[in-house]
UniProtKB/TrEMBL annotation:
PH domain location: 379-475
Family named by the database record: Belongs to the kindlin family.
A single GO molecular function term of this UniProt record: integrin binding
Name the UniProt record assigns to this protein: FERM1 protein
GO biological process: cell-matrix adhesion; integrin-mediated signaling pathway
Gene3D superfamilies per the UniProt record, alphabetical: Phosphatidylinositol 3-kinase Catalytic Subunit, Chain A, domain 1, Pleckstrin-homology domain (PH domain)/Phosphotyrosine-binding domain (PTB)
Record keyword Coiled coil present: no
Keywords: Cell adhesion
Species for this entry: Leiothrix lutea (Red-billed leiothrix)
Protein origin, superkingdom: Eukaryota
Residues in the signal sequence: none
Upper taxonomic lineage: Eukaryota, Metazoa, Chordata, Craniata, Vertebrata
Length: 679
């Protein structure tokens, strides 16, 4: 037997590979080491043996077999577990990576392959001048979404890379700290209300980075034209199972790129992962607003999110604003910004923010003492067997978070026919402005699933008031909440946008307009209508937005996207404990929804506000969640790693802790505590 002290003193050989560009220097070195040699000492000995004077500060050891970095240079080889059979590669921590942005532009930049993905994304966003990096993450395209493209590309040459924007010389790319001026609250940038980009006088924002005026324009401006061939090549989900494939490839935020098999010059997608766009400010967020708009635009064009014909025409009209404005601006120069235009855009932002708790509590005393109620004649529609519906008018009273209905107004003092508690329910709009149909579909949780109730309103105003009350009640809040009136205005604004599609104003002759309608609407509608019909309808709706600035059109587009019933839902195929069939789990910013895979109907909803704790059994890869009132669920994820869902839940909880009162530094430790798990 040999004592540990004697064993540690013995020298043994360790093979090291150096990733360098020198032709006259070997790449493999055999070093005599001892177990008590620390990692930093090994690096020093290796550099001395290479005998090349250069900056080696970005180099570190990558342990090939264990897929991990040896970054704690004060640790000894024994403590790291390194033995003679270990394959250590001495390589740079920052490497080139290609990122496809939401606007489908590809940028090439140097990223840390040794930092956690959370920190790497933060550095990337500093380079691209995107605030609130915690809302974004990196996505690896799953095999299922590439199959279609691979078949088409079998006989084609290598893809053209001329369109790649090179940002490899930025200070963050080199591992240096970013210019703090990018996030200075004391900046007074000038902003172009037409393009939404910083005016040239503010290009000093980027003076220490690689974003020059041209590059900034590429990231902050929209380029909506796309060929039908390009759309045809892109993955278009048809079912919920297809949509689940879109979310399977999110990288683990608590591990590095190298640890997850990402190699130098690989291509990843940079996307907004969490749909809580906090503190949007057009003065500083030209790039961020444009990228959110682009992610929304492509989600609608590729039918990743469903919308009605009316809604599709709204989106097409707002996109057409870019097309028409680009033509009209070609012979004009734009004047500098008016302060009033900036104020107008900022006012539009008040309806944009999506947070877990909603609006600010400006008058708490009034919220507590004055609980308003609604009382109206509404039609109750109850689905019956054999596809028949029973429609009857009742007197409805909305108080707190419950709806009661009575035979008539006179009987409202007695007991109601039924009282519906809306807390935790799903609220789905059922609106067709052209047909004067203003319906509210309520899916109320009951012991064996969801109870469906349809309410039919008479007009837009009545619908907006009742719909806003239902939305708040589903979150456990009453009409006394200060977010009620903004919610009413937001709904009315969306209905007003739907009225655009019915406008009778004369539009330009379709024959005289150079427009490809397939670039503005999803394939479903290009198949339904002839090209000239679509152009005429888009231009007709566009008459109502023609006076909008381009950035206001973007903000309206984002607002309309947020108003869609499926907004913010990320789908996964799961198997619930005790179930014999697969279901779809929808993860949103404030709730989880169990959805029937065959019909697409919601079965049960669980809100994060009622969640007590969640954890993962890593051995069987099962997520378990406990809610109030002794409700608990457990499921395994079939379409992705369970860590992705675990991180989604923790990530949304983390984002709900943000406040405008705090500075913009993130509590990274709290994020990893909520999302990392104990694998």
């Amino acid at each position: 037997m040999v004592s540990s002290t004697e064993y540690g003193s013995h020298t043994w050989d360790l093979m090291l590979t150096v990733d360098h560009q020198y032709e006259d220097v070997d790449k493999e070195f055999k070093m005599g080491v001892t177990g008590d040699l620390h990692v930093g000492g090994l690096m020093l000995k290796l550099v001395e043996k290479i005998k090349k004077a250069q900056d080696w500060s970005d180099y570190a050891f990558w342990w090939e077999q264990k897929k991990c970095w040896l970054l704690k240079t004060h640790w000894t080889l024994d403590k790291c577990g390194v033995q003679a059979d270990a394959k250590l590669i001495f390589t740079t921590q920052h490497k080139m990576l290609r990122l496809r942005l939401p606007n489908m532009k590809t940028v090439r930049l140097k990223v840390s392959f040794s930092s956690t993905v959370f920190r790497a994304v933060s550095d990337i966003c500093k380079m691209l001048n995107i605030r609130r990096s915690e809302e974004l993450s990196l996505l690896r395209q799953s095999e299922g979404t590439l199959k279609k493209k691979k078949k088409k590309d079998k006989n084609s040459k290598e893809p053209v890379t001329e369109d790649i924007l090179n940002l490899c010389n930025s200070p963050v790319s080199s591992g240096l700290p970013a210019n703090p001026g990018l996030y200075s609250k004391t900046m007074t940038p000038i902003y172009d209300p037409v393009s939404g980009s910083p005016a040239s006088s503010t290009i000093t924002w980027f003076s220490d980075g690689s974003l020059n005026e041209q590059n900034c324009s590429i990231l902050a401006l929209s380029h909506p034209t796309c060929s039908p061939e390009m759309l045809a090549e892109m993955y278009q989900p048809r079912t919920l199972a297809d949509k689940a494939k879109l979310n399977a490839g999110w990288l683990d935020s608590s591990r590095s790129l190298m640890e997850q098999g990402v190699m130098e010059e690989d291509q990843l997608l940079l996307r907004f992962k969490y749909y809580t766009f906090f503190d949007l400010n057009p003065k500083y967020d030209a790039v961020r607003i444009n990228q959110i708009y682009e992610q929304a635009r492509w989600a609608i064009l590729l039918e990743e999110i469903d919308c009605t014909e009316e809604e599709m025409l709204i989106f097409a009209a707002l996109q057409a604003q870019y097309h028409v404005s680009k033509l009209s601006l070609s012979s004009e120069t734009q004047d500098s910004t008016c302060e009033s235009e900036v104020d107008e855009v900022e006012a539009a932002l008040s309806n944009l923010e999506v947070t877990l708790e909603g609006g600010s509590k400006s008058n708490i005393l009034e919220d507590i003492t004055d609980i308003p109620k609604l009382a109206d004649n509404l039609k109750l529609v109850r689905p019956k067997k054999l596809a028949l519906k029973a429609i009857k008018t009742y007197w409805f009273v909305f108080r707190d978070t419950s709806i009661s209905y009575f035979k008539n107004k006179e009987s409202a003092l007695g007991e109601p026919i039924e009282k519906l508690n809306l807390k935790g329910c799903e609220v789905v709009p059922d609106v067709n402005v052209a047909a004067k149909k203003f319906g509210i579909k309520l899916l109320i949780p009951v012991a064996d699933g969801m109870n469906e109730v349809y309410l039919r309103c008479d007009n837009e105003d009545q619908y907006a008031r009742w719909m806003a009350a239902c939305v708040l009640a589903s979150k456990g809040r009453t009409m006394a909440d200060s977010s009620y009136q903004p919610e009413v205005q937001k709904i009315l604004s969306f209905l007003q946008m739907k009225n655009w599609t019915m406008c009778s104003q004369a539009a330009s002759e379709p024959e005289n307009v150079d427009m490809k309608p397939e670039c503005f609407v999803s394939p479903r509608y290009t198949k339904k209508f002839k090209s000239k019909q679509l152009i005429a309808r888009i231009l007709e709706a566009h008459q109502n937005v023609s006076q909008m600035s381009l950035v206001e059109a973007k903000l309206r587009f984002i607002q309309a996207w947020q108003s869609l019933p499926e907004f913010g839902l990320s789908y996964y195929i799961v198997r619930f404990k005790g179930s014999k069939k697969d279901d779809v789990l929808g993860v949103s910013y404030n709730r989880l929804i169990r959805i029937d895979m065959a019909t697409g109907d919601p079965i049960t909803t669980w809100r994060f506000s009622n969640m007590k704790q969640w954890n993962v059994n890593w051995e069987i890869r099962q997520v378990a969640i406990e809610f109030d009132q002794n409700v608990s669920i457990a499921f395994t994820c079939l379409s992705a790693d369970c860590k992705i869902i675990h991180e989604y839940i923790g990530g949304y909880i983390f984002l709900s802790t943000r406040s405008k009162d705090h500075n913009e530094t993130l509590d990274e430790e709290l994020f990893h505590k909520l999302t990392g798990g104990q694998e």
